[in-house]
C-alpha cells in the first residue's frame, strides 16, 4: 500500500516501458500492462508510481477520486527550464506584490482610496499565484503529479475566489479614477474610508460566492475517467472535460457565468473610462491631460493584460480550444501578469516609487542597525 491506496500494478505505469509495450483501455483511460517484465520492474521500484493513481471504486460505481496532471514534456531539460523560469517569475511576483502592499501600509501618505485598492490588488495577486504555482512547479519536475478530488476542488475554489475578486476590484479602481477626475469636489465624501472598505468587501464576497458555487457545481458531477488533467492546474474547462456523459449543458452554464463575471465588470469599466475620456476632452490645460494619464494609464494597462488573457481563455468558442495554447495562456495570466503588475504600478506612479524607496531604506537600516 502507498499513500493509503492499494498498489495496482495494472494501472498508470506505462511510462516505465516504451509506448509500444502498453495499451489504453477506453473504459478507464488508464494504461494496462502487456507483459510481466514491466510488473517486475514495478515491484523493484517499490510502487513509487502510485502517486499517479486515478481512482477508487466504491459502491460498485466508478468514481475518480484522484487526478493526475499531464506531463508538460518527456524531455527532462524542457521541464527543468520551464520550472526555473516559472520559479523566478513566481518569486518576482511575490516580492513585488508584497513590497507594494507593505509600502502602502507603512507610508501614511499613501493612505488614500487609490492605494487602498492597489494594496488589495497586491494581496489578491499573492493569493492568486500561491493557489496555483506551487503545485504546478511540483508537477514539472516530479512524478508526484497526482492530486486528490478534494485537493483539486480546493485549488479551483481559491483560484476562482482570487480571480473573480480581482475582476470586481479592478472595476472598483476604475470607479475611483472616475470619481477623482469627473467629480473632484465630492471625491473625499463619496470615496470615504467606509465606502472603499465596502467596495473591497463586496469584491472579495462576490469572488467567494462565485468560487463556492462553481466549484460545488463542477464537483457534484461524476468523473468516470480518464483521470489525467491536460493542464497545469484544476481549471474549469479541463476538469469539466473529464466528467461522465454529455456535459454540454454544464459547459453552457459555466460559459454564461464566465460571461457575467468577466463582461459585467468590464462593461462598467468601459462606462467609467468613457466618462473620463469625455471629461479629458473638455479640459483646456495640458497639465490636466498629464494628470489623468498618470492616474489611469497604469490601471488601464493592468486591465488590458488581465482581461485580455482571461477573455481569450474563457470566452472563445470551444472548437477553437487547444490544450497547448490553453497552457500557454494559463502561464501568462497566472504568472506573467502577476509579475508585471508591481512593475507597471511602480514605473508609472512616482508616489509608489518613492514609498518603495522609503520602505527599502527602512529595511536596510534595520538590517545594518
From TrEMBL:
Q: Which GO terms describe its cellular component?
A: plasma membrane
Q: Which CDD domains match?
A: 7tmA_OR10A-like (cd15225)
Where it sits in the cell: the answer is:
Cell membrane
What is the membrane topology listed in the Swiss-Prot or TrEMBL record? Multi-pass membrane protein
> Start and end of every G-protein coupled receptors family 1 profile domain?
96-345
**Mind listing the GO molecular function terms for this protein?**
G protein-coupled receptor activity; olfactory receptor activity
Q: Which UniProt keywords apply?
A: Cell membrane, G-protein coupled receptor, Membrane, Olfaction, Receptor, Sensory transduction, Transducer, Transmembrane, Transmembrane helix
List all membrane-crossing ranges: 80-105, 117-137, 157-181, 193-213, 252-271, 292-310, 330-348
State the protein's purpose. Putative odorant or sperm cell receptor.
Protein name as it appears in the record: Olfactory receptor 10C1-like
**Organism encoding this protein:** Odobenus rosmarus divergens
Give the encoding gene's name: LOC101376937
Amino acid at each position: 500500500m502507498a499513500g493509503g491506496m492499494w498498489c495496482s500494478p495494472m494501472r498508470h505505469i506505462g511510462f516505465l516501458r516504451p509506448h509500444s509495450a502498453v495499451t489504453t483501455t477506453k473504459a478507464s483511460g488508464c494504461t494496462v500492462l502487456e507483459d510481466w517484465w514491466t510488473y517486475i520492474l514495478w515491484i523493484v521500484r517499490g510502487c513509487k508510481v502510485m502517486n499517479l493513481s486515478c481512482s477508487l471504486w466504491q459502491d460498485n460505481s466508478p468514481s475518480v477520486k484522484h487526478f493526475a496532471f499531464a506531463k508538460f514534456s518527456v524531455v527532462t531539460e524542457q521541464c527543468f527550464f520551464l520550472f526555473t523560469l516559472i520559479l523566478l517569475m513566481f518569486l518576482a511576483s511575490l516580492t513585488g506584490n508584497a513590497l507594494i502592499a507593505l509600502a502602502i501600509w507603512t507610508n501614511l501618505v499613501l493612505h488614500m482610496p487609490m492605494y487602498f485598492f492597489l494594496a488589495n490588488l497586491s494581496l489578491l495577486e499573492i493569493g492568486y499565484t500561491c493557489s496555483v504555482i506551487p503545485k504546478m512547479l511540483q508537477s514539472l519536475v516530479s512524478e508526484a503529479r497526482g492530486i486528490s478530488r478534494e485537493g483539486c476542488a480546493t485549488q479551483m475554489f481559491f483560484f476562482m475566489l482570487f480571480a473573480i475578486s480581482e475582476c470586481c476590484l479592478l472595476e472598483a479602481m476604475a470607479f475611483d479614477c472616475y470619481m477623482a477626475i469627473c467629480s473632484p469636489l465630492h471625491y473625499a465624501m463619496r470615496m470615504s474610508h467606509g465606502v472603499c472598505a465596502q467596495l473591497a468587501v463586496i469584491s472579495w464576497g462576490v469572488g467567494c460566492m462565485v468560487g463556492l458555487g462553481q466549484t460545488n457545481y463542477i464537483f457534484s458531477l461524476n468523473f468516470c475517467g480518464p483521470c489525467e488533467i491536460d493542464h497545469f492546474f484544476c481549471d474549469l474547462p479541463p476538469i469539466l472535460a473529464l466528467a461522465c456523459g454529455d456535459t454540454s449543458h454544464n459547459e453552457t452554464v459555466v460559459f454564461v457565468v464566465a460571461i457575467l463575471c468577466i463582461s459585467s465588470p468590464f462593461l462598467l469599466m468601459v462606462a467609467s473610462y468613457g466618462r473620463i475620456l469625455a471629461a479629458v476632452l473638455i479640459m483646456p490645460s495640458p497639465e490636466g491631460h498629464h494628470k489623468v494619464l498618470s492616474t489611469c494609464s497604469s490601471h488601464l494597462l493592468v486591465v488590458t493584460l488581465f482581461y485580455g488573457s482571461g477573455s481569450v481563455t474563457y470566452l472563445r468558442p470551444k472548437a477553437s480550444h487547444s490544450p497547448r495554447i490553453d497552457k500557454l495562456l494559463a502561464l501568462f495570466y497566472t504568472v506573467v501578469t502577476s509579475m508585471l503588475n508591481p512593475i507597471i504600478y511602480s514605473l508609472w506612479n512616482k508616489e509608489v516609487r518613492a514609498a518603495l524607496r522609503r520602505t527599502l531604506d527602512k529595511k536596510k537600516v534595520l538590517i545594518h542597525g
